[in-house]
Design brief:
CATH topology of the largest domain: Arc Repressor Mutant, subunit A
Shape: extended
Helix content: 40-55%
Distance between the termini: 83 Å
CATH class of the largest domain: Mainly Alpha
Largest sheet: 2 strands, antiparallel
Strand content: 5-15%
Structural class: mainly alpha
Strand order of the largest sheet: 1-2
């Protein structure tokens, strides 16, 4: 039996030295990192939010903390604390999570006072334009031919107008004959309608509150442009006038119904889906002997 040879003493010394050098290097790196207290983190995050007029993601905010110990979860905690603080102190603005980022936005109830002094470029949408926007939002990705088929009329000029307003853009090419481009909504669409992501869109059963009467017809009736007046998003300011106008739209359009067969069919489909899910929930509850909740 051959015994394993022990390493020379100088090699052991070398290994120990290497470990010591590595520990010293790591310690030096730790000492170079600036440590910020929670209140300092909140202060920096708040400054970053005030310095931008667009929703800003945690990843972008984190770039301001290079050379510190601050992690993404610390920024998330700071954002939550700031949002709660603004709410409790009855501030004139709130911190909202919108379009994949965070933004300081003026409270809608204060907009009537701001309109006296702060002016913004009008942001208007006609009824047909809003119909096209709604179709893309709910059916995306969708081609122009599919949009035309749903509406029963040509939609090219409306798509171009919505792209000029940066509410729509091109997606990928489809696999359909001729490989037409898909249309999709943009981040600006989410910003204006106050959505964190596209999954927060209201159900089509509630779309009546956004679509004016006479969609798809000659606009000899009241249009969304008439109703909204100054539907605007103030670029370069710390509030969004669109928030206030959207509240006005909701108040004024609660009695309006859509004229598009597409929306009516989708509403029926969604009601049937809800009924199917309700029936499944009842079956599962009965199977395990749980009480069945009454439908509200």
């Amino acid at each position: 039996m051959v015994e394993a040879e022990e390493p020379p003493a100088e090699e052991e010394s070398s290994l120990e030295l290497g470990g010591t050098e590595l520990e010293s290097f790591e310690s030096a790196q730790i000492e170079d990192v600036e440590v910020l207290a929670p209140e300092q983190i909140r202060s920096v995050v708040e400054s970053v939010l005030f310095a931008t007029d667009k929703p800003i993601s945690i990843a972008v905010i984190k770039q301001s903390f290079k050379g510190t110990q601050v992690k993404s979860k610390d920024i998330r905690e700071a954002l939550t604390e700031l949002a709660n603080e603004y709410m409790q102190l009855h501030r004139g603005f709130s911190l909202e999570e919108i379009a994949g980022g965070f933004q300081l936005r003026t409270k809608p109830e204060n907009m009537k006072y701001l309109r006296q002094t702060v002016k913004a470029r009008p942001f208007k949408l006609s009824g047909p334009a809003l119909e096209v926007l709604s179709i893309v939002a709910y059916k995306q990705p969708v081609t122009k031919a599919q949009i035309d088929e749903i509406r029963g009329v040509e939609s090219g000029h409306l798509l171009r107008a919505l792209m000029e307003k940066h509410l729509l853009n091109f997606g990928e090419r489809s696999d359909l004959p001729g490989k037409p481009m898909y249309y999709e909504t943009t981040k600006k669409f989410l910003e204006i309608f106050g959505l964190r992501n596209i999954s927060e869109l209201p159900s089509l059963a509630e779309i009546d509150q956004l679509i004016p009467e006479g969609i798809g017809e000659v606009e000899d009736k009241e249009t969304l442009s008439d109703l909204t007046g100054q539907l605007s998003q103030a670029v370069g300011s710390t509030y969004s006038e669109a928030e206030d106008e959207l509240i006005k739209i909701t108040d004024e359009l609660t009695h309006i119904t859509t004229s598009s067969e597409f929306f009516e069919q989708e509403k029926v489909r969604m009601r049937e889906q809800r009924d199917k899910e309700r029936a499944q929930d009842i079956r599962e509850a009965l199977a395990v002997g749980e009480p069945v909740e009454k439908k509200t």
